[in-house]
Design brief:
There is one protein chain. By secondary structure, the chain is of the alpha+beta class. Helix 1 runs antiparallel to helix 2 and helix 1 packs antiparallel against helix 5. The longest helix is centred in the last third of the chain and has 19 residues. The protein is globular, with a radius of gyration of 17 Å.
């Protein structure tokens, strides 16, 4: 697989001394993974942040090998990782997307919605400005992957939005993230705890 495309970095993990395996979402090719040489090094540290939008160049040398990925930063959201509530939201939505989507299936709407939600988290003066987008995104993922999820009722006040998030917990945990993905739900629990402090 060889491709060049805009992508959202969802997750990365260390591979070897300085490399990293990155999971990225693209509009045309869906979720893809690749080895980033030097991905754990100083020069790439600011690029390898969940939520960053990057220019992805993915190249496969052999069918049995993980593709090599080169990433160039297009839009950084790294500064938000120093703020507890936005950081928790970004970790959750990126982790959810990386864990829930199958690889190499295009989801144009999910890519656009995730990018829009990340922009809202970055630009809104408080979480009240993006919680409705979070509810819509979680509902969209459930619907796109065949687990129901009608049009979300997220237009109410903040307590109503928190109730809507609570109602989504079970289908997310038991349908979308069933199996050995409890650590992903831990990120959502942290986010909900931080949102509850606003009430």
């Amino acid at each position: 697989m060889n491709l060049r495309a805009p992508a959202i970095l969802l997750a990365s993990r260390q591979q070897g001394e300085t490399g990293a395996i990155a999971r990225l979402l693209t509009a045309e090719h869906g979720l893809v993974a690749g080895y980033v040489a030097g991905g754990r090094g100083r020069q790439m540290r600011a690029v390898m942040v969940p939520g960053n939008r990057v220019a992805l160049d993915l190249a496969t040398r052999a069918a049995s090998q993980l593709p090599f990925a080169k990433l160039e930063l297009e839009h950084s959201r790294a500064a938000l990782m120093t703020e507890p509530l936005p950081a928790a939201a970004i970790q959750w939505v990126c982790g959810l997307t990386a864990a829930a989507l199958p690889e190499r299936n295009p989801y144009h709407g999910i890519f656009e919605s995730l990018d829009g939600l990340l922009d809202a988290i970055a630009l809104a003066p408080s979480a009240r400005g993006w919680v409705s987008g979070l509810i819509a995104y979680e509902t969209m993922l459930l619907r796109e992957l065949g687990y129901g999820g009608g049009r979300p009722d997220n237009a109410g006040d903040f307590p109503a939005q928190m109730a809507a998030l609570a109602a989504l917990e079970r289908p997310l945990a038991h349908s979308l993230l069933a199996g050995a993905r409890g650590d992903v739900m831990a990120a959502r629990k942290l986010l909900i705890e931080r949102l509850q402090r606003m009430a």
